[in-house]
Amino acid sequence: MRPRIAFMTPVLLACLGAAALFPTARAQDKTSAAADDAAWFAVDPVHSSVIFGINHMGVTTFYGRINGPTGEFQLSHDTPEASSFTVSVKAENVDTNYEGRDQHLKSNDFFDAKQFPDITFKSTAVTRSGKSTFAVTGDLTLHGVTRSIDIVVEHIGTRQTGRGVKSGFTTNFTIKRSDFGMTFMARALGDEVTLMIGIEGIKKN
Questions:
Q1: What integer pLDDT is reported at residue 61 of this predicted model?
Q2: For 136-165, what is each residue's pLDDT tens digit?
Q3: Which pTM does this prediction carry?
Q4: pLDDT under 70 in the chain at which residues?
Q5: CA–CA dist 173, 87 (Å, integer)
Q6: Please, are residues 186 and 179 in contact by the beta-carbon 8 Å criterion?
Q7: Which of 37, 62, 105, 130 has the fewest Cβ atoms within 10 Å of its own Cβ atom?
């Protein structure tokens, strides 16, 4: 047993030395987050999601998505009032996994995608509401109508990746489509729409 202990001792010392020289991934993430606290990030449409849910016939919640969100954001923990969020999607990109329904949603019965092609959210005020959450007031433009709404944004993390520095956040909130002039089939589909949004951004140079 002694030769085995003698062999393992330098190995353990080497491992301890490496741990001292190379911080853990968690520590590196914190350093990256601090260094990029005031950085601007461009929304990555491939790794971001905009999902909506609406009551269908009073029996279930039906879900769809709007593909390809774009925009930019700055998320500052040190000075939250300096944070900013702008996210936009094309109504034409609605996707419910059924072409006939998608075309109907794009028509003037619902989104009227030709007349009102863009759905946008632009923040107007940001305050800190928790360790990793922010209370955000902003203008939501949908179906040609702009209304101020209040949402809570949760910062998931900021870290250095093999494809640059990335940061992301999520938010869930509910709106009434009638507030934006979308009233078709109100009894069958319901008025309230839940939005579940996950955004990933890459640091702008």
A1: 97
A2: 999 999 999 999 999 999 999 999 999 999
A3: 0.82
A4: 1-36
A5: 15
A6: no
A7: 130
Residue linked to tokens 């900021």:
158
